[in-house]
Each structure stands twice: as structure tokens, then as C-alpha cells.
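Example 561, ligand adenosine-5'-triphosphate.
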Amino acid sequence: MLSDITFGQYYPASSFVHKMDARIKLLLLIAYIVLVFVVKNFYGFLVVYGVLLFLTLLAKVPITSLIKSASAVVFIIIFTFILNIFFYKTNNPTYLFWIITKEALEFSTFMALRLLALVFFSMLLNLTTTPVALTDGIESLLKPLKVIKFPVHELALVMSIALRFIPILMSEADRIIMAQKARGADFESGNLLKRAKAMLPVLIPLLISSFRRAEELGDAMDSRCYSSSSKRTKFRKLKAGWRDLVAVIFTAIIFTAVILLNNYVGGLV
Amino acid sequence: MQIISKGLKFTYNKKTEFKRQALNGVDLTINEGDFFGIIGQTGSGKSTFIEHLNGLIPVESGELTIGEFDLSVSAQKPKKAYKERLKLLRRKVGMVFQYPEYQLFAETVFEDVAFGIKNFFPEIEGEQLALKVKNALELVGLNYYEVKDKSPFELSGGQKRRVAIAGVLVLEPEVLVLDEPVAGLDPVGKRNLMELLHSLHGTVLKTIVIVSHDMDEVSENCNRVAVFSDGVAVKVDTIENIFADVDFLVKHGLELPLTAKIKEDLKAVGVDIITDYKIDNLIEKIYKNYKG
Ligand SMILES: Nc1ncnc2c1ncn2[C@@H]1O[C@H](COP(=O)(O)OP(=O)(O)OP(=O)(O)O)[C@@H](O)[C@H]1O
Ligand SMILES: [Mg+2]
């Protein structure tokens, strides 16, 4: 079923990582993304994946859900891997077999590891942070942009509504699919065009109901006098605490370690 | 077609952290000719159960047979033959979901009602198709010439629901399963729809199964009832026996129908009436009792 897809789903648990401030987690995610690009050799990746494993255990999220999330991007990873293998060029390559060189193989593996680590880190954030906390965090981090009249609050609102509506629309799609199947709709056979056409009886009611929901939500917000211009307070205040300090220090240590490894062991790329 | 379910179990999101056992061994039999009611608290598994009845949810464990169709796990292979049989089954068991008007999609009412025919009987076309659509729309009390070229989205809520039901009836199923058919309708709309189902029962449709939260509707129309609780059919019995056991109903969080309330009130003042919980019969009984 559609609603089985776990991509971007919060995993409820009570852990060190869950309890961290969403803003700090977002900033640290950026730090780790940078780190993944700083890494120059396989030892660095040993550290990165070690950190990933450690954080996963610390966050008490099942490793399987992390791996499952990677399946959504596995196609892209394989695709870039293959492209890299054939198109990576060096000056004096060592041929392994056919046109495959040792350097290209190393480089492709390296890039695949890089991509995978990116996905894992972002997924870890998704699994341990509620969508609401996430948008609150983004809003808070983007606040400085208000100076140049950027609609930060509206953007955050649109994001949180969109995130909230994804599971609702998924389960609604499930229901409509069932209803049309009961009337003999067949979504599984025929060529691509036929299948796309078969989805119309699902997409149209879905589109209509999302308009209906949007209108209802708008009415509900209006009737409670919602306005984004007024100064509002938060129900849940984001607060950084000792955990966040520990996490920042930990990240700094890892960063230093990777840079040292780069310098002493040397680079692959 | 007789529907027999034995030890039917089902778990949502089975292999994830969000798994939830919705059916926990359902045993029940629905006979041909029944106007069968399924009642129970919210979340007790009613909808999950009926979605099994035409294979929308494949049986996971336990046995389920609908007439000559065996849907049990052991009968799901080979896959191709199973799929073919599912197609046959879906023609015979019509399914009307809760708020069926939200599944309308076509440009005209005619197209929407004809959708099932086009899927199941692509050879039916032209006048023959028009005749079938006309029949179905008239069955649900709509004027064919008035509505056929309208967009389904410009109809009223009650009319939309009728169109959606016509879209299922057009396949001339033997069994019609409805999930809370009158939810969200006004009292007149409710009564009209129930009267419509009543008139279809025994004529166009052999068996009707409804899921309902409205006990009056159940007591007035059904002959047999299953009470669901925590994914189990805790009681399957006739109307008379179900509504006579007040403690049992209260225990499972269910209301009494109006007729049962009247009966209980009368009992409290020393008048014991044997009733089948249909309002007209009860009034007649009380009247006789009063005269006698
Ligand atoms: N698509 C789904 N994914 C996960 N869990 C589900 C899904 N559908 C239903 N459930 C769960 O299965 C259980 C049974 O649900 P079901 O819809 O069958 O109940 P119901 O008796 O029809 O309730 P209601 O009277 O509210 O319609 C509930 O606990 C529900 O939370
Ligand atoms: Mg239900």
C-alpha cells in the first residue's frame, strides 16, 4: 500500500537525538554534509560510517528503516556509479579488465559512499525530528532573512501544511484505489501509457479532495482569525540544552579527526 | 452466495514498526438472502473485514469463501488464475465505500456509472450500455435524462452518493456491501437511502451487508447482525437475540435502538413485550397490549 512508504517518516522514540533542539540538528546536518565532502580517503569514510552507526544506535531507530530509506535513492546511486566507472579519466590508469580502471572503480565507490552517507544523515534527522519541530527549526534559522522582507513565516507554514498533508493524501489515495478496483479498475497490466491512463480515476478525485481540504483548512484558519502578519508566540519553544552542546563538541572532534586523516594519509581525490 | 469466514486475521503495516492487528480471528457466516448488519465500536475492524469480501485486501491468514470463490491463502496461487477469479468475484460482490461520492471522477454522470461496465464488460457498448446505465440510475431513484449529461460534481451530496451507488449496482452484483451508507446524510436522505436498499433487497440484490453506527437503521432493516470488538466478531445472531442482551451491548460500547429503549422502559414498569425491534411492529404490539 502507498501509506507503507516510510520516506520522511518520524520514528517515535525517546533518545538523546530525539531530545535535541531541531535547530542544532539542522545545523549539524549541514556540518555533516560538509564533512562528507571534506573526506578525502577511505579511512575518512570509516570514521563517517562509524559516526552514522553510533548515531543510529544512540537515536534508537532501527537500522532497517534507515536502510529502507536508502532504497528510494538506490537507483540514483547505481546510475552515478555506472556513469563514473565509464567516464572517469586519469593520466596513467591501471586497467583491471576491459575499459575498467582501478582509479575509476575507486572513484565511483567513493562517490557512491558519499551519496549514501548524505542520504543516511538526512534520514536520521527525518526519523528523529517531528515535521512540526523541523519546520519550526527551519523558520527559526531563516529568521535573519526577514530583514530583506523574505516571507519566512509563510514559507514555514506552507511547509508544515504540506508535510502534514502527505500522509493524509496517501491514505486517501489508498481508499480511492480500492474503490476503483472494486469497480474493476486495473492498475497493474498493460503498457506504461495504459497504466498512466488507468490512474486518472484515482488522480482526479484526489485532486478534487485536496482542493476541498485546502478550502476547508483556509476557512478554519480564517474563522479563527489567523493572520501571519501578527506577532505570534510558540506553543512549543525550541530550546538548546546540554545535549546540543555535547553534540556540537562531538561533531567538532569528528571534523578535526577527518581533517587530520586527510593530511596524514593523503587524498584519493 | 454464502460468505464464510473462519479465523480471519489481518495486520496493517505488517513488517514495519507501525504494525497494527486489525482482525484477530473473525468467525462468521453470512447466508444468501441476509440483510446483514455489522456493528461495533470505532476501530473494531469492521471496514477491514468487509474489504476482504471482494479481495481488496488479500487474506493473510485464516479461511474465507464467498460462494464458490475460495480466497484463502492456499487458493491464491497460481497468481494469474487468482487474479482472474478476483475479477469474477468483484462482479458479483459490489462494494460501496464510506463517502463513495469522493470516488467520482468522470466528466458526466453517465461516464462515471458506466466505468465498471467498461472495465468488466468492454464488449457492451452503445444502446446496450445506455440501457444498463439507465436502469442503474433509475434503481437509485434518479432521473436518467436529467442527470446523465451533468457533471457529477454539480450534484448535491445525496445525489452524488446515489450516483456512486449506481456505479456499483450497474454491474448487477449478487451481494452488495456498504460501509456506513448513510453517514453524513440528513434524516430524510437517510430514510430514503435505507428504503432504497430495502426495495433492492430480494429483487435486484440477493444479499446486503451493511456496516453501521446507527442502531435504529440496523434494527429496522437487518435480519442478522455481527458485533465486532477488537478485531473479533464477538457475537453473530438474529436481531431479536442481539438487542435483547442489553448488558452485552453496553459492554461493547454500543447504543440501543429506540425500539429496544422503549421495550426496556416498558419492562421497568412491568409490561413485557416480545418484539423484533421493528418500529411498526412494536407500535402494533403496544396497541394490542393496551387494548387487551
Ligand atoms: N490503512 C491503515 N493502516 C494502518 N492501520 C489501519 C489502516 N486502516 C485501519 N487501520 C487500523 O486497523 C484497525 C481497524 O480499523 P477499521 O477501519 O477496520 O475499523 P472500523 O471498525 O471500520 O472503524 P470505524 O467505525 O471508525 O470505521 C484500527 O485500529 C485502525 O487504526
Ligand atoms: Mg470503518
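Summary: The domain at 3-256 of chain B is CATH 3.40.50.300 (Rossmann fold).
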